[in-house]
Specification:
A: 197 residues; alpha/beta; fumarase; 6 helices; 29% strand; globular; B: 289 residues; Dihydrodipicolinate Reductase, domain 2; 60s Ribosomal Protein L30, Chain: A; four-stranded mixed sheet; 8 helices; 9 strands
Amino acid sequence: MTNLVTPLTEETVRSLRLGDTVFVNGPIVTGRDEAHIRALGLRAEGKETPPQLDGCVLYHCGPIMRQTEDGWQVVAAGPTTSARMNRLEPEMIREFGIRAIIGKGGMSAEVAEAMRECGCVYLAATGGAAVSLAEGLGACTGVEWLDLGMAEALWSFRADRLGPLIVAMDAEGNSLYEQVRGSLVRDARSRPLPRTG
Amino acid sequence: MIKLPEPVDQVVVNLLRLANTKIPEDIGWALEAAGMWENNPVAYTQIGAIMDNLKKAEHMGRPMCQDTGIPVFYVCGRFDSSIAAQIAKGVERATAEIPLRPNTVDPLTRENHGSNLGPGMPIIHYIPEEGDFTEITVLPKGAGSENMTRLGMLNPSDGVQGVEDFIVDAVLDAGGRPCPPTVIGVGIGGMSDTCAEMAKMALACPLDVENPDKTLREMEERIFVRLNKSGLGPMGLGGATTCLGVRIKKAACHTASLPVAVSIGCWATRRASARITDHGVEYAQGAVL
């Protein structure tokens, strides 16, 4: 089990191996479909983008947040399906030098290629484990683009043992999802289940 | 207007709180069993994280998943036309009070009004029944699993084998995206719309209630075994538990059609019901429909 501290270096990222279990500590941002579109749109127009995106750990997550007297508090924050961002992610990785993506379900070969090229890994969080992962996200340190809605805004946190996360796509182009997909058995011989109870 | 012992909007808030914070017993047992079957360390880590999260969610009264979904309602028994507005009020209140994530947006502008309401929302199915009761069931359905829904208008000659292959392919092609281990809701027959409705409604049937139809029961068992031998595993990261159960409903169809719909429920297949009578309101999580 490895404790990673952000910001991550390329060397650290390239040392991670498929199937490793890691926890993430330190600054981290959330972003989904709309945040990707806006970040790339601003970059394309040569406009300023939030500095926390540069070299970040990007969590594909639309959290439930609650506003309290002490500011924003995270209520529930599991990963969203990363494949929705397949079309946008290679450019995000190349433009913003993203070092790690946290999500669920994995991403396309094009994303894997950008990850290999730039030094970035994909860390699988347990889908739906929203309360445990909210604890790991720790304190909310800011929010941008709240006009996109709670789920689509760019939230910043200081993570405190966010995990467990599985290295599911490494910085060499390997994907645990592809390995599993490649060995799927589709026509296992059917037989009735043993009756219990 | 039919007078009920508790305002329907309050019942809906209670229902959404129960459904989102506490996993139904049958699903909880199935997940626990999955933890005992898994010897793949990555898969075991996933099931462990799920069980840990379920305990925390229930203890802290927080939604077990941040995607509190779109709540799908089924209203049975006696009711009148005012119930839709009361359910809508309950959804809006629950969104602020629990809180739920505001998920409802315009499909094209993607504008979010923050209330989980909007044209066509909330989704309510009506099933009138004789009797002195009103029963409201809610299935909060997240998008990760909903986006993997598949409808097939098969050829009648494809037969039982064709139907089973279609279902297995739908689940395996979805991979880790719908958060396996999943519950598989299937509709067979009807027309395209009713077939998809049956598939979703099948997710309200607990895993420990036997399908009364022998043919469907045997299909459920065969698909269950095939999926769990596939190797897809929790979160699509490999392992022995891809599916927690398969629930199939069927209806008559056109002689030239064989519609099949697959509605995938994530491991957090949530449900809750409230039975409202003159004596009060009873809450439960063993919906059948």
